[in-house]
Design a protein that fits this description.
alpha/beta, 9-stranded mixed sheet, 3-stranded mixed sheet
Length: 441
C-alpha cells in the first residue's frame, strides 16, 4: 500500500499512471462518487473491476474490466426488491405487460418471468421490438409461457380479443408516448394514446375480472408544463378517482431512467461516437435519475403494497445536473471537454429546469417499504371526471391543439404552458463557455 484514496493526486506525481482501477465492486453510490471525483480531479482515466459475485457466477472474468457506469455516480444505493413478497403475488398468475418492447416494459418482462407466472403476455405495437423481446426471453427460459402480441393498446377490439383469450390477473400498463418535444407537436395523439387508450384498457381489464392494474406514470405529471406531463397527470387522476370495484388500480411515478431509449445518456454516447459536441438545453437543468432495474423494482413493489387509487413514488435522492453527467461521460470515454465540446441550445418548449416528485397539494406518507412514499390528493368525483373526459374527447375532433390544451388545463389546473424556469435563462449565448454558463446559472 502506497497511500490512501484521497492522496491519489500526490501519488500520481511520484508514480505516474495512465489509468486507475477501482477494485471495490461493493462500493456504495456515495463512495463511488467520492472515488471518481478524486480521479477526475487528478485528470486520470479510471475503470472498475467486476463484482466478485459476477466472477463466481461465471458471468464475467477479471479480464473484463468495465468502464465506470453512469449509475455508479448517482450518489445512492440502488433500491432492491424483496423477491419473496413479489413472487407470492405473481407466481402461477397470468400477467400482461403493455409497452412490453420498451425500456421499462422489457425489463418488467425479464423480471416477471423469473417469478414463474403461468403466462406472460407481452403487448407492443412495434413488431421489431416484440421480435427481439421474444428472442431474449426464449434464451432466458426454456418453456413457452410467453405470448407475444403485436397490438395497439388503443385498439379496443384487438385488446378485448387478447384479454378474452388470456384472462390476465395482473396488468402492468407501460405503453405511452413520452417524448416531450414530439408530443408538444402532436397533442391529440398524446391524449389518444396516454388517456383514451388507458380508459378503454381499464374497462376491458375490469370486464375480464382482472385483479390488479398498475399504471406507469412520470415525474413530469407534477405541475406539468407540457402535453406529455398533463396526460400523465390525467392518467393518475383516472386511476385514483375511478369508481371502486373489484379491480385494484395504482399509479407509479418516477423520474428519468438511465439508458432508456431516447434518453440523455444514449444520445450523449451517440454524439461522442459521431465526434459531435454534446448538446444540453441549459447548464442549470437537473433531472431525477434511476436505473431501469430500480424503476421495475418500484413498479413490482407498488403492485404488491399499493392500495386502491394510490400514487407511489420512489425516494430518488437529489436531482443530477445534466452538465455534470455530460462531463463525467466525456471523461469515462477517455476524452477531454475541449476535445468533445458542449453546446447549449436553450430550453425547449414545455421543458422545466428541474422536475419535481410531489406537488404542494399532495399529501405524502410512508409505506411499508422505506424507499417508497404514498401520495394522495383531493379526489375528483368520478362522474365529474367522466364528463370532462367526454369533452376532452370531443375537443380532439377540432383542428389544432388549442382546444385540447384548453380542456387539459381545465381538468388539470396546475398544467401551465409558461416556461418553467428562471426568467433570464432561456437562450444562453453561444459565445459563453460552459463554466461561465454554469456560474451564471
Amino acid at each position: 500500500m502506497i497511500g490512501r484514496v484521497d492522496e491519489i493526486g500526490a501519488l500520481l506525481a511520484r508514480y505516474p499512471a495512465d489509468e486507475i482501477l477501482i477494485a471495490i465492486p461493493s462500493a456504495t453510490g456515495e463512495q463511488m462518487q467520492r472515488f471518481t471525483a478524486i480521479c477526475q480531479k487528478a485528470r486520470v482515466r479510471f475503470r472498475t473491476v467486476p463484482a466478485l459475485r459476477d466472477i463466481i457466477n461465471g458471468q464475467l472474468t477479471l479480464r473484463q474490466i468495465r468502464e465506470v457506469r453512469i449509475e455508479d455516480l448517482l450518489g445512492r444505493d440502488p433500491v432492491e426488491t424483496d423477491l419473496g413478497f413479489v413472487r407470492r403475488e405473481l407466481e402461477g398468475r397470468v400477467v400482461l405487460v403493455t409497452g412490453a418492447a420498451g425500456s421499462i416494459g422489457s425489463e418488467l418482462c425479464r423480471q416477471i418471468q423469473t417469478y414463474n407466472p403461468s403466462r406472460l403476455v407481452c403487448v407492443d405495437q412495434s413488431e421489431t421490438g416484440i421480435f427481439y423481446l421474444q428472442q431474449e426471453l426464449a434464451d432466458m427460459q426454456a418453456d413457452d409461457s410467453g405470448t407475444f402480441c403485436v397490438a395497439d393498446v388503443g385498439d379496443v377490439h384487438r385488446m378485448r380479443a387478447i384479454f378474452n383469450e388470456h384472462r390476465p390477473h395482473v396488468v402492468f400498463h407501460a405503453a405511452a408516448y413520452k417524448h416531450v418535444p414530439v408530443m408538444e407537436r402532436n397533442a391529440q395523439e398524446a391524449v389518444r394514446n396516454n388517456v383514451m387508450a388507458l380508459l378503454s384498457l381499464l374497462d376491458i381489464a375490469e370486464e375480464h375480472l382482472c385483479r390488479s392494474f398498475v399504471l406507469i406514470s412520470s415525474d413530469k405529471a407534477v405541475n406539468p408544463t407540457n402535453i406529455m406531463g398533463a396526460t400523465k397527470r390525467l392518467g393518475e387522476l383516472i386511476v385514483a378517482c375511478r369508481d371502486a370495484n373489484s379491480m385494484r388500480c395504482v399509479s407509479v411515478r418516477f423520474g428519468n431512467v438511465l439508458g432508456s431509449s431516447g434518453s440523455v445518456v444514449p444520445i450523449f454516447q451517440q454524439q461522442i461516437r459521431n465526434n459531435r459536441p454534446l448538446t444540453i438545453t441549459h447548464p442549470a437543468i437537473r433531472r431525477f435519475f434511476m436505473t431501469t432495474r430500480e424503476a421495475v423494482s418500484l413498479v413490482l413493489q407498488a403492485f404488491v403494497i399499493g392500495e386502491r387509487g394510490d400514487i407511489l413514488v420512489l425516494d430518488m435522492g437529489e436531482p443530477v445536473f445534466i452538465l455534470e453527467l455530460a462531463r463525467t461521460l466525456i471523461r469515462l470515454c477517455g476524452k477531454t471537454e475541449d476535445q468533445v465540446g458542449i453546446r447549449f441550445t436553450g430550453l425547449r418548449e414545455g421543458e422545466k429546469i428541474c422536475e419535481e416528485l410531489y406537488s404542494a397539494a399532495e399529501q405524502v406518507s410512508a409505506t411499508s417499504r422505506t424507499k417508497i412514499k404514498r401520495i394522495r390528493s383531493k379526489p375528483m368525483a368520478w362522474s365529474v371526471l367522466l364528463h370532462h373526459l367526454e369533452e376532452l374527447r370531443a375537443s380532439m375532433t377540432v383542428d389544432g391543439a388549442a382546444p385540447v390544451r384548453a380542456k387539459l388545463r381545465e381538468i388539470v389546473p396546475e398544467y401551465s404552458t409558461e416556461m418553467y424556469g428562471h426568467p433570464a435563462e432561456v437562450h444562453p449565448s453561444e459565445s459563453e463557455t460552459s463554466s461561465q454558463l454554469a456560474a451564471r446559472a
